[in-house]
Structures are given as structure tokens and as C-alpha cells.
């Protein structure tokens, strides 16, 4: 590249002295330099975009659900946000399944919001879909709202026992994150 540039410089100087060719060479040299600079900048950006092992570990959360009794919920943290894991009672499952989903603002069945064989385990983000407050209902003694699930005190959104929005300003059900059972008693979220 350096040889080529030197040759081009001397050829330009020899062939013409009117400054036009020389300017052409300078433009080409400038574009080449920009191309090299561009590569140098792009590579670190690409390597930064690949998540490190630390980031991957932090992006998933394991929760042992074995101690959660029917009717109880626990709060965990997933990607720095509250996560609710709730074991439904038979009555709460029945109440969720008795709802005509066509009447819902965000129609979903309990089955669609849980894992096969684990319909009693409701895993949702603890983040109201209105403006992001943390709803009540996961901790012992907290109000659960008119539909027995969760209640957001910020502006009065009521979620049912499947975490579906039933009343109030929230536009959607509590989000069910990506998760799977890695054993009968442990879930991995994310
Ligand atoms: S943030 Fe929950 S109702 Fe507004």
C-alpha cells in the first residue's frame, strides 16, 4: 500500500504538474484512510455487542419454587425488575378458567400464560403495564384487587388470578417472561 502510494505520488508528479492529478491522488488517499478508520471503529463496536459471560449470567434468573405453597407468591428479581412467582390454589385456577376470554382487554387463557403440567405456577413480571409501578398482591397480607390477583395502587389497575388486566388503565396483562422448568422445582427465567 505504501509502495503503491509512493509510486502513485511520483507518477503524478512526473506525468503532470497541473495539480489536478495530484488532487485526485489526495482524495483517494483520504478515502482509503477513512476506510481504515471506519474498520477500526466498527470492530470494537461489534465485539461490544456480543454479550460477555457475565452479562449472559445476569440476564437469567433461577428460582426455586418448591417452598411456595398454594395461594402464596414470592418476589424475585429478573434483569433488575421485580418478578412474581405464584402458586395458584384450585379455586384461583377455576376462577381464571371460568372467564370468557373474549371479554378480556388482552385475551389470554391461563393455559397460554403457564407451562404445560404446571398450570398452577404463574410467573409474571411485577411491573404494571400502565406506567410501570409494582403491583400489590405478591406479599403476605397485601391487597390483591377485585379479581384476586394483583392490584396496582398507582392508578387502580386490577389483575386477576392469571395476572390478566381486568379493570383500570393498564392496557395489557402482566408480562410473562421467557422461562422454563429446569426441574420440577426450579425455573430458569430468561
Ligand atoms: S402504573 Fe399501575 S395503574 Fe398506573
Detailed description of the structure:
The protein has 190 residues and is an alpha+beta fold. It has 2 domains: 49 residues; 133 residues, Rieske [2Fe-2S] iron-sulphur domain (Rieske Iron-sulfur Protein, 3-layer Sandwich), CATH 2.102.10. The protein has 4 helices and 9 strands, in the order H-H-H-E-E-E-H-E-E-E-E-E-E. The strands form 3 sheets. A 3-stranded antiparallel β-sheet has the order 1-9-8, with no helix packed on it. A 3-stranded antiparallel β-sheet has the order 2-3-4, with no helix packed on it. Strand 2 and strand 3 form a beta hairpin. Helix 1 runs antiparallel to helix 2. It starts with a helix and ends with a strand. The N terminus is likely disordered. It binds FE2/S2 (inorganic) cluster.
- Low-confidence runs: 1-16
Q: Counting H and I runs of at least 4 residues, what is the number of helices? A: 4
Provide the structure class. alpha+beta
Query: Judging from the principal axes of the Cα atoms, what is the shape?
Result: globular
Give the integer mean of the pLDDT values. Answer: 83
How would you characterize the largest beta sheet? 3 strands, antiparallel
CATH architecture tag of the largest domain:
3-layer Sandwich
Strand runs, count: 9
User: Helices and strands, in N-to-C order?
Assistant: HHHEEEHEEEEEE
CATH class of the largest domain: Mainly Beta
Residue share in helix: 25-40%
Instruction: Give me the CATH fold name of the largest domain.
Output: Rieske Iron-sulfur Protein
- Rg to the nearest angstrom? 30 Å
Q: How far apart are the termini?
A: 49 Å
Amino acid at each position: 500500500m505504501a509502495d503503491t502510494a509512493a509510486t502513485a505520488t511520483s507518477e503524478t508528479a512526473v506525468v503532470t504538474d497541473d495539480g489536478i492529478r495530484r488532487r485526485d491522488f489526495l482524495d483517494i488517499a483520504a478515502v482509503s484512510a477513512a476506510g481504515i478508520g471506519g474498520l477500526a471503529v466498527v470492530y470494537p463496536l461489534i465485539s461490544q455487542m456480543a454479550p460477555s459471560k457475565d452479562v449472559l449470567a445476569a440476564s437469567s434468573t433461577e428460582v426455586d419454587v418448591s417452598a411456595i405453597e398454594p395461594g402464596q407468591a414470592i418476589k424475585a428479581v429478573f434483569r433488575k425488575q421485580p418478578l412474581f412467582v405464584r402458586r395458584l390454589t384450585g379455586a384461583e385456577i377455576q376462577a381464571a378458567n371460568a372467564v370468557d376470554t373474549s371479554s378480556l382487554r388482552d385475551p389470554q387463557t391461563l393455559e397460554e400464560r403457564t407451562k404445560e403440567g404446571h398450570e398452577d405456577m404463574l410467573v409474571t413480571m411485577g411491573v404494571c403495564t400502565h406506567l410501570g409501578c409494582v403491583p400489590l398482591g405478591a406479599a403476605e397480607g397485601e391487597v390483591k384487587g377485585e379479581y384476586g390477583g394483583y392490584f396496582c395502587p398507582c392508578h387502580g389497575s386490577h389483575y386477576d388470578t392469571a395476572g390478566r388486566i381486568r379493570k383500570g388503565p393498564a392496557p395489557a396483562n402482566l408480562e410473562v417472561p421467557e422461562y422454563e422448568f429446569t426441574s420440577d422445582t426450579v425455573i430458569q427465567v430468561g
